[in-house]
Amino acid sequence: MTNKLLTNAPILVVGAGIMGLGIAQVAAQAGHSVMIYDSRIGAVAEALAKLAKNLEALAAKGKFSVDQVAQTLSSIQAIDSLAAATSAQLVVEAIVENIEVKRGLFQQLEAIVATDCVLASNTSSISITAIANGLVQPGRLVGMHFFNPVPLMKLVEVVSGLQTDPAVAQQVFDLAKSWGKVPVLARSTPGFIVNRIARPYYAEALALLQEQVTTPAVLDACLRGAGFRMGPCELMDLIGLDINFAVTQSVYAANFYDKRFVPSLIQREMVEGGLFGRKSGRGFFDYSAVAVKPAAPALLPPPAPPQRLRLHGSGALADRFAAALAQADQRCERVENSDWLGLEVDAAQLRLTDGRIAVQLGAEVAVYDLPLANAAPGALAWAPSARASEAWCAAAPAWLQLLGFMPQRVCDAPGLIVARTLAMLINEAADAVQQGVCSTDAADAAMKLGVNYPAGPFEWLAQWQTGAVINLLDALDTHYRGERYRVSPWLRQRV
C-alpha cells in the first residue's frame, strides 16, 4: 500500500457511542467529510442531536464560534447502510469490544470500500493481529486507540499487528498528528501501552489493601502527594470497579496468567457485591448524600530538640531536608557518604525506604516513602519498626512534618506506597520496551497524556538511580517470594 496522505480523506466512523461520536467530531473539526453509521436504529440521530447540543453550549461559552459549530455539524453525515460508504478512504471502528463482531465488520467492509482504504480499530485491548485474521488485505488494518473524551484527550495509540503494513501505521500516525493529537507507535500486545503499563497503579494499591497495610483514603492521599491527580482507589471508583476488574482479567488471561497481572480478591468481592464506585453510589468510598468526609489530620507538636542530629545522604532530597532543618533552627551534622538517606536523631533513625521493612533495619527505626522531586510536599507514608519505642513512634512523624510533609502512618510493608508503585510502573514500562512494544519516549508520552501521570516512567527513572529501583524490586521479590516482582532485564542491563 502506498504511503498516501489521509489529510482530506472522507472518513467512515462505525459506532455512534461516546467514542465514535467523539472521533467523528474531531475528524469533522479537522476538515474531513465524515459519515457515521450505527447498527442500532436511531442511534446516529440521537448522537448527532447530543453533539449539536454540546457544541452549542460550548459556543455560548465562547469556546467555539457559531460558524465552527455549523461547519462541524454539516461535515457529519448519517448513513443507514454500510453500502453507502464506498467513498471512504479511512474507516474507524468504535463498536463493542468483541473480537468476532469486529472481525465480521471489517470482513464486510472489505467488500464495500476501495482496496486502498485504511481500516482502523479503536479497540483498547483486543489484538489487532487477531482482528485482521481472515481479511483479504490484513496489512491495511491498524489500531487507532483514542482516549475518552476524544475531543480533549491528546493521546492516540497507533497499534500495529503482525501483518500491519508499516506505511499504513505511518499514515494513521501522520493523520492523528494533523488533528492536533499526540500519536505513539505501539506493537499489538495485551493492553498496548497505557492499559499495560498502568496495571501496577491499581494492582499495588489492591495488594496493600489485601494485606491491611492502610486504608483507601491514605493510599490516595499519598499518591496525590506524589503528584498524581487522583489516587488509585478514587480512580477505580470513577472508571467503575467492574470495568477495571474486567480489563485486569483480560490482561491477565492474555499474558498466559503471568503473576504480575493477577487480579485482586478484594476487587472481585466488591464487583460481586455490586460496589462499582460512583455509578453505584459506593465503591472504595461512599458517594451518597449523607457520606461523611474524613477530617484533616491535626498538626503535631514540633519534635523535642535532640542531643545529636545527623543528616545522612547526598543529592537534591538531602539538600532539601537540610534547608528545612535550617529554617526550623535545627542544627545538624551532614554525613554525605552514608549508604542511606534520612535523619539520625540521637540513637534513632528515620530512613528512606529501600524496599526492606523497618524491622529488618533495627529497633529504633522508621522508614518513610519516596518524595518526588517535582511534587509539592504532601501526604507521605511512614512506618515504624515493630521493635521501636513509643517515644520514637511519636517523634518520627513530627520530624517528617518538620521536613514539610503530612505524615501518614501505615503498617510496616516493603516499599511502602509511592516507592513501590513507581518501581513497578518503571519495571512494567521497561519490560514493554524490552519486548518492542514501544519506545521509552512513547511510554512517557502515553502515560502522561493517556492517564495524566505527573511524569513518565522513564522520567521517574532519570530522577531515581536505576540501582535503587532494582534493589527495591529485589527486596519486594525476596519478601513475597513470587513472580510478581521480578526485575525487567532492560533494567538489569542498565546498572
Short structural summary:
With 495 residues, the protein is α/β, with parallel strands linked by helices. It has helices at 18-29, 43-60, 66-74, 99-110, 128-132, 166-178, 194-197, 199-210, 216-225, 232-239, 241-254, 265-272, 316-327, 358-361, 390-402, 418-434, 440-450, 457-463, 466-480, 489-492, and strands spanning 11-14, 34-37, 76-78, 90-93, 118-121, 141-146, 155-160, 182-187, 309-312, 333-335, 342-345, 348-352, 365-368, 379-384, 406-409. It is elongated, with a radius of gyration of 26 Å.
What does this structure look like?
This protein is an alpha/beta fold and 495 residues long. The chain folds into three domains: 11-188, 3-Layer(aba) Sandwich (Rossmann fold), CATH 3.40.50.720; 195-280, N-(1-d-carboxylethyl)-l-norvaline Dehydrogenase, domain 2; 309-409, 2-Layer Sandwich (Transcription Regulator spoIIAA), CATH 3.30.750. The protein is 42% helix and 14% strand. The protein is built from 20 helices and 15 strands. It has helices spanning 18-29, 43-60, 66-74, 99-110, 128-132, 166-178, 194-197, 199-210, 216-225, 232-239, 241-254, 265-272, 316-327, 358-361, 390-402, 418-434, 440-450, 457-463, 466-480, 489-492; strands spanning 11-14, 34-37, 76-78, 90-93, 118-121, 141-146, 155-160, 182-187, 309-312, 333-335, 342-345, 348-352, 365-368, 379-384, 406-409. The protein has an eight-stranded mixed beta sheet. Strands 10-9-11-12-13-14-15 form a seven-stranded mixed beta sheet, sandwiched between helices. Strand 12, helix 14 and strand 13 (365-368) form a beta-alpha-beta unit. Helix 16 packs across helix 19. The protein is elongated. The model has no long low-confidence stretch (mean pLDDT 95).
